[in-house]
């Protein structure tokens, strides 16, 4: 004798499907509710500490808000003045692009070379990897202070070494032609370990059978590197390129510690210019407009790279 109620046994197939669909919908809604509850603290923090300040900065960029006098709405005047009348802004753009153009190829090239050298499974490689990665976790302020004294004119380590060979070292930090290359070099040494780790992981994922087949075909090491290694690690190259580009456009701490934007305006980069406008002259509205121009510059360069990635980034199917 069956234990099911008569109503269940007499139910039509369509009614059973409707009941099953309704139960699944309730389960999905309940799971979605749990998901929203779990991410709500992060979303709340994002709205309060990220979206709110960004919106407030955009509103400020449309005013002449200053701590020194009452603010008024000026519309797009700040943007127009920045782009058409502000020579120091264009100098800052030029210095920022100069820094990026020097940092990106040097950083990526050195990171890849170190990753290839340290990918060999030889005794003691862990020590070298740790030594190269250590600057990444070091405070940028401490790092910049140390290198400022290394390149000091009289008592600096570099000029002391040059003096040992009878060469009088230049005033690195006071020469308008030398100071930016010094800042670029210091920044490369600080960040090279991070990209090296990414390249190391990518190199270890390249299947060995490709190299074995290329060796049997008589391909040289250089050809193996250009035809196998570079295409296979191109997604990691693209990632590091994006990260390094955005980081270079936001360079700030080493400029403040090592050069203070000088000598003259030779290292007055864009973020440092925003800092001076906001916290030295208290022109917060104008500084916000420059900050949003920097945002659109970063966005445009990232979109361009994303568009051209299809031409050189390889995705194995």
Describe this structure in words.
- The N and C termini lie far apart (58 Å).
- The protein is built from 14 helices and no strands.
- With 317 residues, it is an all-alpha fold.
- Helices cover 71% and strands 0% of the residues.
Q: How would you summarize this macromolecular structure in one to three sentences?
A:
With 317 residues, this protein is mostly helical.
Integer-rounded radius of gyration: 28 Å
Class by alpha and beta content: mainly alpha
Approximate strand percentage: under 5%
Shape: flat
Helix percent reads over 70%
N- to C-terminal distance: 58 Å
**What about the largest sheet?**
none
Low-confidence stretches: none
Could you give the order of the helices and strands? HHHHHHHHHHHHHH
What count of helical segments does DSSP give?
14
Task: Using brief descriptors, characterize the structure shown.
71% helix; flat; 317 residues; 0% strand
Fold blueprint:
Elements: H1 6-9, H2 13-61, H3 77-85, H4 87-118, H5 125-133, H6 140-150, H7 157-164, H8 179-204, H9 208-216, H10 221-232, H11 234-249, H12 253-258, H13 270-279, H14 284-308
Helix pairs in contact: 2-14, 4-8, 4-11, 11-14, 13-14
């Amino acid at each position: 004798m069956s234990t099911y109620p008569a109503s269940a046994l007499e139910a039509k197939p369509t009614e059973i499907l409707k009941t099953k669909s309704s139960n699944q919908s309730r389960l999905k809604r309940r799971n979605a509710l749990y998901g929203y509850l779990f991410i709500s603290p992060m979303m709340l923090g994002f709205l309060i500490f990220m979206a709110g300040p960004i919106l407030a900065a955009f509103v400020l960029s449309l005013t002449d808000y200053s701590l020194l006098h009452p603010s008024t709405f000026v519309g797009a005047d700040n943007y127009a003045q920045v782009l058409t009348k502000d020579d120091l802004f264009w100098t800052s753009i030029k210095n920022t692009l100069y820094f990026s153009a020097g940092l990106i190829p040097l950083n990526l090239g050195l990171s890849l070379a170190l990753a290839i050298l340290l990918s060999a499974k030889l005794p003691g490689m862990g020590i070298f990897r740790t030594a190269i990665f250590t600057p990444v976790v070091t405070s940028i302020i401490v790092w910049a202070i140390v290198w400022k004294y290394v390149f000091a004119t009289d008592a600096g380590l570099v000029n002391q070494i040059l003096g040992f060979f009878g060469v009088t070292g230049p005033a690195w930090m006071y020469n308008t032609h030398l100071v930016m290359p010094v800042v670029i070099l210091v920044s490369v040494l600080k960040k090279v370990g991070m990209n090296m780790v990414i390249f190391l992981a990518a190199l270890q994922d390249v299947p060995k059978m490709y190299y074995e087949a290329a060796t049997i075909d008589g391909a040289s090491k250089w050809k193996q590197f250009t035809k196998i290694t570079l295409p296979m690690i191109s997604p990691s190259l693209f990632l590091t390129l994006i990260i390094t580009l955005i980081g270079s456009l936001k360079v700030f701490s080493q400029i403040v510690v090592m050069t203070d934007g000088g000598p003259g305006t030779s290292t007055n980069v864009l973020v440092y210019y925003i800092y001076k406008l906001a916290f030295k002259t208290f022109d917060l509205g104008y500084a916000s407009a420059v900050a949003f121009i920097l945002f659109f510059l970063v966005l445009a360069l990232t979109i361009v790279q994303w568009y051209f990635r299809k031409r050189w980034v390889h995705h194995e199917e």
